[in-house]
Amino acid sequence: MLREQLETLAVLQGIDLEVKEHKDAQTERRQEMETRERDIARLAAEVKTLKETWEERDRVRRDKEQVIHDANRKATDKRMRMSHVKNLKELQALQREIGVIKESNAILEEELIEVMTDLEEHEGILKQKEEELTGLQDDWNQRKGPLVQEIADLEHKIDQTRDLRASTASRLNDDLVGRYELLFNRRGGTAVVVVSSAICQACYMNIPPQLWNDVLRNERVNLCPSCQRILFYNPPVPEQGGQP
Length: 244
Ligand SMILES: [Zn+2]
Description:
By secondary structure, the protein is mainly alpha-helical. The protein has helices spanning 2-82, 88-170, 174-186, 209-217, and strands at 192-195, 222-223, 230-233. The structure holds zinc ion.
């Protein structure tokens, strides 16, 4: 009987909707995993670049410090030689040389201050980003285990419905199952609409009177003219016992 077939089809849809819900929940969790891991990777890359830039600037700082240090030593040497000079010409030459060193050191020192200011700024940003990264990683370390478990639990629930789904589908006509599955996938999980009045409960369009009569008879597969879903009229179960 078609009525029974449609009724079973509605049961099958109930199972499929449950599976779909579990699968959607799994997808959501997998996306959360991807998003978190991608965010961490992106921030880790940013921290790495910042560190490299900082190291490069720090090398520049050390080089400049070394040059200044060497120049100062040279100036000190020259100053010491000044007490052993034999004539004024030699003294003036040493004074000039010391003057040149002082001038170039003054420029280098200014550059050094700039580099150090830059370094400090970089250090602040780097520290902030490193803390942010640690926070993300800590959060993720706590969330990862439960998330993996949730996905496994959902998989288990999906597995549990497999036998019931197979036995339910085996009671159905293959053509009907085929049409149903096509609709289920195309129509976002509602292929069979259980109707109790002449309104499609999926798209809320009125069912024309002639079609509604056909639906009430449950003698053939009737589709909603608007959304093409299978319409199934499930007559109300008469109350047992009733009023005295
Ligand atoms: Zn409809």
